[in-house]
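Step 1: inspect the first sequence and its tokens.
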Amino acid sequence: MRAGRLLSSLLDYLNIKELYPPQKDAMKVVEKGDSLLMSVPTAAGKTLVAYAALIKAVNAKKKGIYLVPLRALAWEKVVELRGICNSILNGAKVGVSVGDFDKARGLSKYDIIVATSERADSLIRNNPSWLGDVECLVSDEIHLLNDSGRGPTLEITLSKFREINPNIQIVGLSATVSNSKEIADWLGATLVESDFRPVPLRKGISLDKEIKWDDGETAQIGLEGVNGIAIDNMPEQALVFVGTRRSAEAQAKNLAMLIGKRLQNEEKQILQEYSEKIKSSADEVTSVDSNLSKLISGGVAYHHAGLTNGQRQIIEDAFKSKALKVLCATPTLAAGVNLPAKRVIIRDLTRWESTFQSTQPLPVLEVQQMLGRAGRPGFDVDGEGILVAKKHDQIEYFTETYFEGETEPVLSKLGSEPALRTHLLSLIASGTINTKEGLHGFLEKTLFGSQGELWRTQHRLNKVLNFLDEENLIEIEGKQDGEFVPANSQLQEKLRATAFGRKVSQLYIDPLSGVIIRNALQSEVEANPLGLLHTIARTPDIYSLYVRKNEMETYLTHLMQMEGDLMLPPPVEHIDLEFYLWDLKTALLLMDWAEETPEEHLLKRYSTTPGDIRAKVETAEWILYAMSEISELVSPKTTKLITELQIRVSNGVRKELLPLLELDSVGRVRARALFNAGFTTQKSIRDAKPSDFKDVAGIGTVLAEKLTGKKGPMQMHFELG
């Protein structure tokens, strides 16, 4: 199909009558096959352009990859792209890849792959044969190059793909940033930049009981602050952004008491369905579920990383259906989820920054991303973005900074030691580079290099290479003495990954994590569940639980009692001991989870949240898998124990339930119910009759028949009749 007809079919499928001005300009670039950086506000139609580029590549019998910053966004894109491909591309296959970092099998059959940048980077490390067929690479939210966490991986991934296929079409989708031309030049892309919004944004600042709009108008509201602004907006929806999780919960509780009184009976009925769903979908109903359920009944909810994926999905669905009137969220929502609202309220414009050990103003870009959620295309004439001032002199500052000021430039974060450590090893292990000269040549092509950072951080580069060499992750042939290598030297050293280095890189863990795991497995302390969990908690790949001052004595006591089981000895320095205790607390949480401790107890005992527990469990599962792979190299006798522990942590069960977990449709709760009812082995289940399970919680007739391989007499009679 010709490009023009393809675009026409896409527009027909999406029921789009006319392109926005920046879309028209961007489509011309896409049709020529050139790389593109589209820097426009939220909701200005960037996604359509990305889809057009991908289907153009597939139509040419090539592959496309869509990079998303968060897993939560991946499935949304997959659903949309599958609909498009089924309609206009004769069912071209769309897949998603967000986990199993060392696996690339099965992806070759897909024409379009939606992946996080971390997953795409891991694919390159494993070098599947189909990578050369990727003609189009879309990078959503490409301004996250500026993020110290995700930015380096995104930067390296884009650089690697350009190295693999110099003619690849890169389509970068970005918020408006001050140095977009610099980013476009680095990508070799045509820049399409615009401040166009399909729904105009009306901006205002609230103080006391008044909103001062940017057009000079003022509006009076009945209550001060967020409560007044949100209620003034009813029956329309509002998003409220606050600085912390606790603030989001408190603000939601406050609003629910006010908004719940103003709801119609029909609205209350719909909300009740979502309220009940929160509890019914939970494996174990916790206080978090109960509190959320109550808030939703009042037309309000909160949204942050402390919630489980299931809880967040129900809340997002309730907001999208317009059942929820207000959603209180931390700023991560602005980048991670497509939830527009008529009115966006930003209450907190500062946050604590541990780097500075002080409260700092929010970046302009971040505030603009939040404001960009105001206004729903096709529903609202305009969107309203309101900043909440606490003092009169803040009005001028907010106006000049956030309404009239330039966004911050996007700067490479690749130069940090952890980022260099991880990505230098991957470049060497994958064979992308094999000399010091080649390494410098590659880095010069990154954003890091193009911004002139390479030579300013030469000492750090050499420090990282020395670490990789000393820890037997790489070998340096012809190594020069001294830490600093002059820029004009010939750089003749040869770089080669060891078997250990290649394994660590393929496993997609920090090289320091690999070293910590290896050292623990080679320690004199015999491997044991707590020691293994404490080891993975010591790695930089998992965020440890903070030990509060009033908990310090408790965990020092735990340390004295459990030291003999810990495979990595306590540090000598006091400050390091504090972090060691954080890791011990994290290990004990994971241990309690694997011992089937009720979730509510975990929340209280460790002062944590369901979302944080799931995040730690998920990360721990992965690092335990990595540990089992490393143990094959350094301590094979430990592998079975590690694998068992991995399954236990993944499912939150004791060892005796492992055989039952192998049964289809049997998870943590059902396995325990079966075991407690006397069905302790797979054989005992197979030998039973379906009717034997009638009193086992969670085991209905259909599942009982499935587990036993037998059908009850009524079912048989029906079938025979």
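Step 2: inspect the second sequence and its tokens, then contrast the two.
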Amino acid sequence: MAIKRYYASADNTITNAFQGNLTTRGTGSNMGAADILEVYSIYGQESSGSQELSRVLIGFDLSGSANTIGSDADNNKLTLSNRATAVITALSKTSGQASTRTLVVTDVEGNAVTFTIDNSLSTSTATNIAFGNANSNATQFATNIAAAINAANVAGTLKVKASSSDEAVTLTMVKRGAAGNDVASLSGTAVSDSVVTVNNNFKNGSDGANFYLRLFNAPHGQTLPKNAILVVQGLQKKWSEGRGLDMEEFSDLTNGDGGSNWVYAEDGDNGVRAAWDRQGGNFHQSPVYTASFAAGTPGVTGSGPTADLQVNVTDLVYEWYDYDGTNGKKNYGFIVRLTGSQEAYFQGNPAGTDHDGNLNNLTGSTTSFYTKKFFARGTEFFFKQPCLEARWNDAIKDDTGNVYFSSSLAPQAENLNTIYLYNYVRGQLRNIPDIGTGPIFVELYSGSLNNTSPSTASVLLPQGGGVASPGNTVITGGYVSTGIYSASFAITSSTADYNPPSRLFSSNLTKVYAVWANSGDHGSGMTAGVAGRIEFLTSSFFPKRFDTSALNPNPTYASNITNLKSIYSTNEHARFRVYVRQKDWNPTIYSKATSEALTHTIDSGSYSIHRVIDKHDVIPFGTGSLLHTQMSYDVSGNYFDVDMSLFEPGYSYAIKLAYHNGSIGSYVEQPETFKFRVE
């Protein structure tokens, strides 16, 4: 499942607006139990130049309890971005050789620190690597390198962490994502003079889930702000929700009820109060996320002032998740407000707030923006609750049943095939103990004369994918997720055996066997074996050939979900198997009979799910950059997984499919609809 929703654990509206008498402000009121959240700015209502503002606070629990980002990440229910890592080895050198050598480390944000290896120091600093206590002790030198890098991280000059084990130092980017793989190489005279050796530069960073803050518009009969711009920022202080309800006269004060308001983040028992550092909530200046509610598109529902709020807050969520006291930010949730130029103008105390709760805002607006309302977490509407929505592409594209020979007709990337190994132990995916999360190795073999088993000679392969150099026979694969491993390679129809190299298969290479093992060192042929080598799986496939045509094809398909049930429960994770055939498929009398009709694999397909009664899109087609509703495929055809907790029980839902048509360069929605009910 590539969509997860995490619902708000707390929310509240805070305001400095006047009550109906235009005399008393609601700065001490709490609205934490209301089913509506409200953002607005009113200028000049009480008097010329008066300011009235309303802002929204929203909190999310990231870790600890079940069904949070932390617990789902720990239990492989959520794919997070990985950090890029690099490894260097500290070498044994004399003090004279180490003197004045430098090591330059760069992070993903472009911060570079030059560390000088100093013979006179026994303790490392944020700019100097101690060598006085190491000398020819490589293990101590490695410890000193890690200490210097970590000191720079604490100082805020370098967003990299380090750890050492014996002579090896592992450097890890603090910021997650594949961008860390593109950081400039480790450098300096210490590298060129072999005081340290670079084992590998930064790599293995990967992109995972993106997180979207979603608030849903609450229709109302009051005016709507024209061309409003809302900003979302991270709060800097702990706050409490409270139990207030009154959003009209602001009569529900927080005294003794523990609720936040315009002045106080927390208002607890026994008169213990924690005030905001700045009235109206104090928040980080970066990152800042923006949502525009400009004039909508005519005829498009949910656009313009009535649109929902949806902003990508990925960077901040990862900062929360990674907070360690030095890096990241502590999770206090979000504040949602109008942008500064649209909040009302007020000239007052430059420090920020006057005695009446006004905020100094010399660049503010003399036009009112009233009023934008969203459903709060107390709403009766299941799909309107504020949430963080995680989206990522978890599609597995297993080419075992769809391997192609390399061809000049296809770009290099399309000539690569990826095959998978799934390690099930008593019905559960488990990592292979001898591999863990490390590399796995695959060799390809031609079939024997009757194609019933692998021959004794592995196939030579062109460079690409997991093949490091031309003429290698070993594919280096890797870990995907718990119990799943993959390997990528290209294969040509005219490929030589490893032994003897002069033998060519040409058109005779029809069936290929893939042997998965913990080592690529097979000895002299398969049967020879090597001590410690363990073979995990032998699979097989029949490679296909790319075709050209004088026609521009526009294929049409018939689709069916073969394992669809009529009813699902909310605690199910369902896998839907999709059978597809081309409508113009026309087998001949010479076609080989099979017990099951063969499915046509869709390389790029997507799904959506809507509620039948009102056509509400629970899961819209995710065909954008994230491809978070992309279908997977394996040797049995296409499939996708759905977490049924996303659906409100007691309703019927319908699945729609869309397949990418290369002729027109877009997805084509299929005519079939597949219905089920959730209880």
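Step 3: confirm your contrast with the notes below.
The chain is about 5% helix and 35% strand. The longest strand covers residues 651-661.
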